[in-house]
Amino acid sequence: MAESYDIKLIVIYTTQGEPGGFLLYPHIFNRSGEWIGWVNAKRQVYSVYGHYVGFLNNDPRIIRKQSSGYLKPRLTPPSKPPNISPPATVPLAPMMPELPIGMFDVLEDSPEMLPASDFGDLKDDMD
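The structure assignment produced for this chain is given below.
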């Protein structure tokens, strides 16, 4: 007997409690439903271009140490998924604890680190 699994859309919040994106494992989408990144089994978050962005904590938020990521290798991203239709309403965010000193919320403080696949400063130059 074949088992069916429902893939759950997880809301990723910002520190201010706003929905910043959605996780449909392993893909991360922005509020418009465009693919902006992916997460691996170690909860490390990468942009659509394979650049390390941060990690997904249990809140769930995408956070990063201010001094990390520059020495991490660029990874090959998974194939581009189709865009999603985000839900019109999302659950209220849980109370977010303060971030430790030296950490920041990527979706709130540096959303440009997760551009859509057809946009961004980190996109490779075309020949």
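Interim note for the steering committee: The first helix runs from residue 106 to 109. The radius of gyration is 15 Å.
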